[in-house]
Amino acid sequence: KTLGKVPVNCAIVYSIRVGIELPTVEVRFERLTVQARCHVGSRALPTLLNSARNIAEGALGLLGVRLGRQATLTILKDVSGAVRPSRMTLLLGPPSSGKTTLLLALAGKLDPSLRRAGEVAYNGFPLEEFVPQKTAAYISQTDVHVGEMTVKETLDFSARCQGVGTKYDLLTELARREKEAGIRPEPEVDLFMKATSMEGVESSLQTDYTLRILGLDICADTIVGDQMQRGISGGQKKRVTTGEMIVGPTKVLFMDEISTGLDSSTTFQIVKCLQQIVHLGEATILMSLLQPAPETFELFDDIILLSEGQIVYQGPRDFVLEFFESCGFRCPERKGTADFLQEVTSKKDQEQYWADKQRPYRYISVSEFAQTFKRFHVGLELENHLSVPFDKSRSHQAALVFSKHSVSTRELLKASFDKEWLLIKRNSFVYIFKTIQLIIVALIASTVFLRTQMHTRNLDDGFVYVGALLFTLIVNMFNGFAELPLTITRLPVFFKHRDLLFYPAWIFTLPNVVLRIPFSIIESIVWVVVTYYTMGFAPEADRFFKQLLLVFLIQQMAGGLFRAIAGLCRSMIIAQTGGALFLLIFFVLGGFLLPKDFIPKWWIWGYWISPLVYGYNALAVNEFYSPRWMDKFVMDKNGVPKRLGMAMLEGANIFTDKNWFWIGAAGLLGFTIFFNV
């Protein structure tokens, strides 16, 4: 009952009772121009020929040779303005007007391939002098989430990665000033503030509060879902995307079309909550909406109207209709103001709003509107405001973030391990199925290479054992294939979190590798226990455990390889084609399909970089150095007796050095580390 009043009381306590100044951020952009170089016409079509030409031109471009002609498109054209704290700002404009590009430019997330001119500053600090990804949050219009996690788990993980910012420091200062002033805090407010200032908690009160204000409390324990499993609705996903960012301590929000998929009532409720955050928490929000309802439009204080990459109007909502009336256009009584603003700059719709009966209608271009606005009293005030540089000394020390590491590495690792373990439990069927599949294949292999039919009399018998070892190598190699689709499905979420600086890449990779080691140990034991004595490999106990170690390392190497292929290819289609090329090279040059002595000299480098070489040689050396092979002799071509084990290794083009077991094991371990890195 009192939950909705708590943030209001917090702000009042901060600002009125003891005079604590809340950190505020003013975002200014001056003479901002964004251009893109791209192909136009038939050259821009995604045909096979054009794709091949793009690759060739890109390769030549690295050498400084420019062959293809590209057109320059101006997305934003010399725009200037300011987004002020404590004021809700609405970004309006027809499609393709440059709204998303402006939001990305202000958030410091502009694509590097775009050319940017002009300056963007927060409290007078250019983007290069602080960490914009930690200071501001860009909320995309696309919903990218882990489908297996529930709504609450998604927000909890986001809160743990973002931390609490300066809340703890502000709370400490508040307690000190209250004590000096003899003020006794309200129990509800004090409890809320302390609960939301705690770092490292798995589920915070801030998450519960965010779920409540976004109307997600009814589906908090429902999985988000994806194309393969049913979850929450599209509108609820859009609110999860918003909640994922506002659950953190960020004071600046750039929100791109957050109303997509939402009904007008839900949009109104969300914007109303954000309005409270802005007015009472002195936050800075720039939000773009497509055709907001009149009651939602009324919640905003300022309007930025963008069209054809130029700002037509920026200032208080109360003066926007007055500006267009001065240009000769009037909004009809039954017409929504937001719809009028998006249509009045359109050549197709502009004439119907012409209201000046004293002169005939003529089309007024966007450039003319932009020039007229500069002479309008709101435009003059904006120009005067921008002409005075922001005094950096006025910036609160907690307003901007100057370090990428707002949360300790230990807490990030703990959060990442918890998330990965949760996903493993949700996907437990995959790991159970893999183990059962391995048992079935092992039983089938044991009946093919049955020990009663496996002898150690001559070289022909030895090559049967080589076949059994190769089968062991290949089966355990492809046992890691499941990592490919699992990794690819999580890559979009990883890239999103990485760009937001939630965590570095190794924080994501390490739990993926470490938490799968127990499953790999179980699968290795299952395979070796079922096959080793059934197939009749060397009966010594030390060779049993050595083969177990090699099988485990092969599985780890394979898992790392398929994760690396997923990271390079980034889609299942490319991974199944381009990724197959890596596997073919590894297999052809692995030393068993084509012996080492038959590989051409210009391809011998491929032999040494194939991880299968090390697994194959180590398995063979471990088997054929056993007494039952080394205590028997055969005649070579010259009639000289030779140990059967040595003759077998030489005949199969395998290294005869006994140390190759450890060389092979070290090679597999090295490839495992390399692929995961």
From TrEMBL:
It is a multi-pass membrane protein. One of its GO terms (molecular function) is ATP binding. It is found in: Membrane. The chain crosses the membrane at residues 429-450, 462-482, 502-535, 547-566, 572-595, 602-621, 659-676. Gene3D superfamilies: P-loop containing nucleotide triphosphate hydrolases (3.40.50.300). It comes from the Eukaryota. GO terms for cellular component: plasma membrane. Residues 60-333 form the ABC transporter domain. Its main location: membrane. Keywords: ATP-binding, Membrane, Nucleotide-binding, Repeat, Transmembrane, Transmembrane helix, Transport. Belongs to the ABC transporter superfamily. ABCG family. PDR (TC 3.A.1.205) subfamily. This is ABC transporter domain-containing protein.
